[in-house]
Amino acid sequence: METPTQRLWTSIDDVFRAILDHPFIRGLINGDLSLDVFKYYVIQDAIYLRDFSRALSRLASRSHDEDLISMFSDHAKTAIEVEKSLHRSFLSEWGLSEEDILRTPPSPTNYAYTSHLLRTVAEESYEEAIASVLPCYWIYLEVGKNLEKKGSPNPLYRRWIDTYSSSTYEGIVRMVLSAADRILYGVKDDLWARVARSFRVSSVYEYLFWDSAYRLEKWVFNL
Predict the structure, then answer these.
(1) Which among 16, 37, 75, 120 has most CB atoms closer than 10 A?
(2) Is residue 169 within a helix (H) or strand (E), and if so which, with residue range?
(3) What is the rounded (10 degree) CA torsion for 76, 6, 121, 72?
(4) Going by C-beta distance under 8 Å and a sequence separation of 6 or more, which residues neighbour residue 175?
């Protein structure tokens, strides 16, 4: 029998296929992705994590289950630390500091994505809130696993692939998915439609995040 999360994943098959076919992802595999594009992405991802952390903390605080409070808090911290350690290794090699990141504004897509997450975890049902954060965890794992099979001739991009295909990262994601299945089990009709929409919107933003980096997206007007 299909689990709730499997049902959600099936609903974004078109989005995930588009992600794997995007020139950013193909550039990681071929090793010819522009370094300027990759730097832009890493910096924006570091900025994104600040608000993603806030979203996960809010999600933990809304739970009435002590085990879920502990799990979401601990796993949010662990997942973010895994990514932060990767970011720090890249940024130090490029001579960039935390202060440099703080002075960088979020891209329009980054700002829109985190605004969607923060609004959803604050204002919508707990089921919709959980669905909104799943794509960030899950899509990165599936992209990492897919790219692991293909590898990359570029050691920089291979390090990125190794992080998101690692057993450590997969363990974090699987536990979050298991919790989501418990929470989403039995959700039907109108609420399920909202859950699926929340999951899909975040998934589309995952695609747009890589696309915005590939385009070196800028604000139309200076901030």
Answers:
(1) 120
(2) helix 167-184
(3) -20
(4) 71, 75
Distance CA 136, CA 13 (A): 15
Whether residue 4 is predicted with pLDDT greater than 90 in this model: the reply is yes
136 given a catalytic annotation: yes
| pLDDT tens-digit series, residues 12-33 | 999 999 999 999 999 999 999 9
* Residues ≥6 apart with Cβ < 8 Å to 199: 8, 11, 12, 131, 132, 134, 135
> What is d(CA 222, CA 150) in angstroms, rounded to the nearest whole number?
40
Q: How far apart are CA 130 and CA 124, in angstroms?
A: 10
> pTM of whole model > 0.90?
yes
What kind of architecture, by CATH, is found in domain 4-214?
A: Up-down Bundle (1.20)
Catalytic one of 83, 127, 136, 142: 136
